[in-house]
Write a structure and sequence with these properties.
The chain has a four-stranded mixed β-sheet with strand order 2-3-7-6, covered by helices on one side. It has a four-stranded antiparallel β-sheet with strand order 8-11-10-9, with no helix packed on it. It has eleven helices and eleven strands.
Length: about 375
Amino acid sequence: MKRNRFFHILAAIALMAGIGLTAASCSEDKLGETIFPEPKSELDPNSYSYQLDKWLKTNFLDVYNLDYQYKMEDVGTNMNYNLVPASYSQSLDVAVLTKYLWFDAYKEVTGSEEFLKTYGPRIIMLIGSPAYNPTSGTMILGLAEGGIKVSIFRVNEMNTEDFASLNEYMFKTMHHEFSHILHQTKTIPREFQLISLGHYDSSNWQDRDEGVVASLGFISTYGSSEMREDFAEIIANYITKTQEDWDHWMDMASRGWATDAEDELADDVTYYCYYYYKNNDASNGPTYCKENQVVHEGNNKYFGNSKDSSGNRIIVYDVEDTDGVDGVAVLNQKVQIARTWFAEEWGIDLDKLRQIVQYRQLNFNLEELRKQVTDIK
């Protein structure tokens, strides 16, 4: 049976309004040091949020002219969604991780703070809950608005003990959103815009299977929705995916994938896999099978010792790749275009950035990062 996909992850963006924002001023006007007004009063040392507020001011507002908002004001959100504020403790964790895994990573690769001072967002807003879209069965994890504001959702559900979850819902989202800001400043290469024409599906991407989109040369189901999301997803996933996860996706991209509507052997099977299982259903095995779950015996291959509804061992059939796309070649081509774009347009070595981010993701001590805030007097 098909997997329940009601709440698919929209691991990224719904671009808001236009690509850029313009401002007019009289010739004698002079720009100040910040776009934000002076606070009405000094931070209150007796406030429960004093330590985090001071740390955010010192590390984001004073350095990057960036207003880091975690005390949600509904006027700054889309009123069509039922949203809740981010908790203080989760906001603290996300704030220190934002600096360590995003801002400090770019500072390291560029050698200074100037890159993000110039091109970084001016507002980051944390939202405690996802923004659910009941019509499409998706949830929004992040928004980048006009190159100015980045909103990060689902903060209260972040599991700091689960690296894979952090990577999927937080780290990747940060880099995805920033990729949108960058391509709003400098256009996506035309070569990239043409690679996957005819294979995007803006209406039903959430119902596409990972194996199918991988075989078509996309790095995620959401990346298969439209070209801009494809570009942001390639960059974000290349930067944040572990080598093991990247290799697994490329393996999927190299295989054929079939559905019950495409394969003559189909009975009641309505899900995808590396292989097609005759007389199988969801109760007899996982949606995805891995190479080490396939047992070779003589001329047959079996799915371990699993049996179908009739008690027979499940025979595994290879599926021919008939989509006409070399998924591995397309993915490599997209990464190369992104690599060249970063080097020529931004002066950044994308592979070095990936190396830095990968190291930071696997070598951070959250307790020590928290002390930056909690040790403030």
